[in-house]
Design goal:
Elements lengths: L7 E4 L2 H18 L8 E6 L3 H11 L4 E10 L2 E9 L3 H4 L5 E8 L3 H9 L4 E7 L9 E5 L4 E4 L18
Parallel strand pairs: 1-8, 2-3, 2-5, 5-6, 6-7
Antiparallel strand pairs: 3-4
Bound molecules: 1-O-pyrophosphono-5-O-phosphono-alpha-D-ribofuranose, hypoxanthine and magnesium ion.
Length: about 170
């Protein structure tokens, strides 16, 4: 958590992520591209891959591609760049394509992704206020000063009991 000073932490377990990604799929059913269905899911690597797997399973979308955006040069935030594009013959201008990421924070990643596929539908599991305008569908909003910790970045560990903690 060395990027920004965040006031709060929101810790997401695998179980919670599974439920929230399923809730996202549930929402997307009603906002989908109608009878033709989604043509493909594009996951934004790497955080979008686990949610994209769950969403594509729930919506029975078998075609899944990836896009990779690099936003940081070591610790310095730089102009985000697409370093791995999806198959452009497949995704075209994004019509019928569902883009999935774990969260939107500032929205800079999604700005770049949207520029590549302007007609795609963008979905994230979590959203912070600054990035919300970049997202079409999301499940849970957290405040801008909250850092979201994902299960792949955490481990179970021992916690001292309250009793005797000050000894
Ligand atoms: O809205 P933004 O401010 O652009 O931030 C959101 C992006 O940042 C994180 O990815 P990161 O670039 O850390 O890479 P990762 O998915 O490989 O962890 C997160 O998974 C989003 O993709
Ligand atoms: O709150 C966050 N959690 C994890 N990764 C992130 N990348 C940007 N914001 C976040
Ligand atoms: Mg990411």
């Amino acid at each position: 958590m060395d990027r920004l000073p965040h006031e709060k932490g929101f810790h997401v377990s695998w179980d919670q992520l599974h439920r929230d990604a399923r809730a996202l799929a549930w929402r997307l059913q009603d906002t989908g591209p109608g009878e033709t269905g989604w043509r493909a899911v594009v996951a934004i690597t790497r955080g979008g891959m686990a949610p994209a797997m769950i969403v594509s399973r729930e919506l029975d979308i078998r075609t899944v591609d990836t896009i990779s955006v690099k936003s940081y040069n070591h610790q310095t935030q730089a102009e985000p760049q697409v370093i791995k594009a999806p198959d452009m013959d497949l995704v075209g201008d994004g019509t019928g394509v569902l883009i999935v990421d774990d969260l939107v924070d500032t929205g800079r990643t999604l700005e770049v992704v949207r520029a590549a596929m302007p007609r795609a539908h963008v979905a994230t599991v979590y959203a912070k206020p600054q990035g919300k305008p970049q997202v079409d569908t999301f499940v849970t909003e957290v405040s801008q000063d909250t850092w979201i910790f994902f299960p792949w970045d955490m481990a179970l560990q021992y916690v001292k009991p309250y009793h005797g903690a000050d000894d």
